[in-house]
Design goal:
elongated; mainly alpha
Length: about 150
């Protein structure tokens, strides 16, 4: 580990090597014995103390009161009507319902086209004959459509 890498880790993770990524701790401990690395760690520790001292002390009662006020205000807020769809979504809703209806009708029609001939044909002796019945038109009566 170079001194620049050590400095980058100290700036990122702070002056306590125990908070650094585990894979770098061994090399960092070895490098921390040098005077230049000790200076980098001391500067990082000073910054850690400065940041730690800047955080205000907030008691739990104050936090609970603030959360209660937020929840009360959210509960008291009037419920607004849902927003109208944007201009880009309006054309989508106009053609989506008819297109979905057409697709459903096509699926029902196609399924009836296969189910009706199967109901009129003689039952197959084995389950494998169903595929033959579907693919071989010679097994069907020629006038199954008109019946």
């Amino acid at each position: 580990m170079t001194l620049d890498e050590f400095k980058t880790l100290a700036e990122t993770w702070g002056g306590d090597i125990a908070r650094w990524p585990e894979r770098t701790r061994g090399d960092a401990d070895a490098l921390a014995q040098t005077p230049a690395a000790r200076e980098v760690l001391e500067e990082a520790r000073r910054l850690d103390r400065l940041i730690g001292g800047a955080a205000p002390e907030i008691d739990d009662d104050r936090v609970n009161r603030a959360m209660f006020r937020v929840a009360t205000r959210l509960a008291a807020a009037p419920v607004s009507a849902p927003a109208r769809p944007r201009f880009g979504l309006l054309p989508l809703t106009r053609w989506l319902a008819p297109a979905a209806s057409f697709a459903c009708a096509a699926i029902v029609g196609a399924s009836l086209a296969f189910v009706h001939p199967l109901a009129l044909a003689r039952p197959p002796a084995q389950a494998g004959n169903v595929l033959t019945l579907l693919l071989d038109a010679a097994l069907l009566d020629h006038d199954w459509v008109t019946r």
